[in-house]
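Our platform keeps sequence and structure together, in a single record for each protein. Such a record has a labelled line for the sequence and another for the backbone structure tokens. Nothing more is needed to write down the fold, since each code stands for a local backbone conformation. For reference, a complete record is included directly beneath this paragraph:
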Amino acid sequence: MLDVKLIREQPDLVRARLASRGAGDDAKVAEVLSLDEKRRKALGEVERLKAERNRVSKEIGILLSQKKAEEAEARKNETRRIGEQIAELDRQVAEV
């Protein structure tokens, strides 16, 4: 089994080694690289959304302590939306 890091960092070497064994398939290496890129982008987006959700959650606490229930409820809706986006991206990452 090949490490995806090796494929990512040295794709030409991987192609050459696979070709020397008669198992070379440039399309497969390109597909692995493409899927890896999609996965890495999705993981980056998940991390960004989690940070945003944490920030909004802190704002909710502040708003509740200031007796601003309507604004806090709006922020709660925002955290639910962010949570849904995170769940969708997690599903995509698992699929990839």
